[in-house]
Write a structure and sequence with these properties.
CATH topology: Rossmann fold
Largest sheet: 7 strands, parallel
CATH architecture: 3-Layer(aba) Sandwich
CATH class: Alpha Beta
Number of domains: 1
CATH superfamily: NAD(P)-binding Rossmann-like Domain
Distance between the termini: 6 Å
Radius of gyration: 19 Å
Number of helices: 12
Helix content: 40-55%
Number of strands: 13
Amino acid sequence: MLMYTKEYMSDLTEIQNVITNLDRLRNAKVLITGAGGLIGSALVDFLQNLNRQKHLNIYIYAAARDYKKIERRFGTMMNETGFFFLKYDALQTLNAEVHFDYIIHAASNAYPSSYMKQPVETMLANIMGLKTLLDYGNLAGTKRIVYISSSEVYGKKDDGRSYSENDYSFLDILNPRACYPSSKRAAETLCSAYQQEFGVDYVIVRPGHVYGPTMTDFDNRASSQFPRDVLNGKDIVMKSMGTQVRSYCYVLDCVSAIIFVMLNGILGNAYNISNKHSIVTIREMAECFAKAGGRKVIFEEPSRTEQSSYNFMDNSSLSSEKIEALGWKALFDLNKGVRQTLMCCVV
């Protein structure tokens, strides 16, 4: 669970420096779906910290299904000026009388354990949940919708190069595990269709493997399980040799990239979110957390169920050239991100 340490608050302030045109958020109404999640909750933290420091009078609507979860996550922040809770279910119609200026769609079944148990709900939520927001944005005249997609849309290739934004490869669409990347692909096309037919303004971001102290208790991805093991005083247990290459990104770098693209990205474009100084193997990531926490890495055979949930991609490293060309840069390399995660989180 996140602790609002002075280090975390300082980091929220530091990432302001890499985002241009922040004043465009003055008096804006911003809806964040999935506000209780790893990325969504950090976005709320950033915007509220921005309000405190720059007095931009941003109206932050934290949308989620469970009020108590939001209450536990944000505590007294919910009583601050500019913070609003909005009950939201991706499979239900959006009931809101507010005309949002910006919508950041971060709600999704993002954990292997959840979308392997609920592949149908995962697909419907990713596609129909976005459709609801696009319909709303079209009718309300929303300035911009930001769709948080995934690096998994690229599919699997074998040449070892990092993926650029047009680098699509093979995806086994008859494997139930493809419910997540297939629906993310379809959702991106839906954005494009709404722009062409109705003129809806959108941009897409494709994060790599995001980690940080805002991880939730139910997140069973390796990048969340590694720090959880260390914080619990345990050795890190790996269920493979960990040779797969990943683009890891500290959550506050991800936040700054999302806000940067929302304010500066080109209409209809997709942008990778990747820190070029944190492209490592899963094993190297595990060893970094183990070293920082004084633990070691051990290996166990995975169960058949665990194997079925694994990411298809041996290499999911992402090129950051496109977003960096806009002027964005990452501030947290792997060692700093790991250190901040352990420093700002308790279990």
